[in-house]
Q: What sequence folds into this?
């Protein structure tokens, strides 16, 4: 009898259908705004977040080059109040506001009809509650900061 | 040469058009179009349908201003050698009809032939051509604006 009970405990109550292959989950992300739009960046790629004044004071000491994120994605010159410093610390994204973190959002690839620079800018799109937010591709933005560093 | 099959008809402004029903994946009620910064000026944004993100194509370069947006027709098209899903805004009710496809006697841009249904003739849309035209027009306009 006890064996039968143990056997039942091992059996799953139901077997879920295989998940749709289109969506995956990202690690925790940091949501920020730039040029009036919302974006996300993986928290594991961020070294620190500085406010504008702090960054100006430390810029030369740290050798951090910054990118006006809004300007680079075509939203016009941004109001740079925060700097999202990417690991390992030599490049930062100038943004307007850092809002909050989101845990394990679903990320889907950009649809194939998007064939321009956005494929470099973004790793995919996050499906949050009532919102679709581009997830920035940090490797690209690190490279984008390189010419300015030279 | 003609064949009989099912088609979805819908209006774009004053004129009614048709697509082969095998190409149409679903009809979507007007819903939120999510936009984000990108460089493809023919794409207004995306719709989210059951966890899938579908780009919405602005058809104005091909058909001019489409007054009112009643539904989105989500269909498959071939763009640049790849099968892609696209949502096109349409301006009235959509119907599933049976009809007979026939070739047009003259070659008309954006049309893949004619559909004869219920005593009417409806142009069959060449969605691949329409999407390609809209995407290229928008790219050209963006280039001119930058230049």
A:
């Amino acid at each position: 009898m006890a064996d039968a009970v143990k056997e039942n405990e091992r059996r799953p109550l139901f077997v879920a259908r295989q998940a749709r292959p289109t969506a995956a989950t990202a690690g925790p992300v940091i949501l920020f705004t730039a040029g009036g739009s919302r974006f996300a960046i993986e928290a594991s790629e961020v070294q620190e977040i500085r406010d504008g004044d702090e960054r100006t004071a430390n810029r030369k000491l740290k050798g951090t080059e910054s990118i006006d994120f809004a300007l680079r994605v075509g939203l016009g010159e941004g109001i740079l109040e925060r700097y999202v410093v990417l690991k390992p610390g030599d490049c930062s994204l100038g943004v307007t506001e850092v809002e909050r973190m989101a845990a394990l959002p679903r990320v889907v690839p950009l649809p194939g009809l998007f064939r321009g620079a956005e494929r470099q800018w973004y790793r995919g799109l996050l499906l949050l509650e009532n919102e679709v937010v581009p997830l920035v591709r940090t490797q690209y933005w690190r490279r984008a900061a390189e010419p300015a560093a030279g | 040469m003609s064949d009989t099959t099912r088609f979805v008809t819908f209006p774009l402004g004053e004129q009614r058009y048709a697509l082969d029903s095998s190409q149409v994946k679903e009809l979507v009620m007007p819903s939120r179009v999510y936009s984000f910064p990108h460089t493809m000026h023919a794409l207004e944004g995306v719709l989210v349908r059951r966890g899938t993100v579908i780009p919405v194509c602005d058809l104005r370069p091909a058909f001019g201003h489409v007054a009112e947006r009643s539904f989105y027709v989500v269909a498959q098209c071939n763009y640049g050698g790849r099968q892609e899903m696209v949502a096109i805004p349409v301006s009235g009710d959509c119907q599933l009809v049976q009809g007979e496809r026939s070739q047009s006697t003259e070659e008309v841009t954006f049309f893949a032939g004619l559909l004869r249904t219920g005593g009417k003739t409806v142009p069959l849309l060449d969605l691949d051509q329409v999407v390609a035209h809209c995407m290229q027009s928008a790219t050209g306009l963006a280039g001119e604006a930058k230049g």
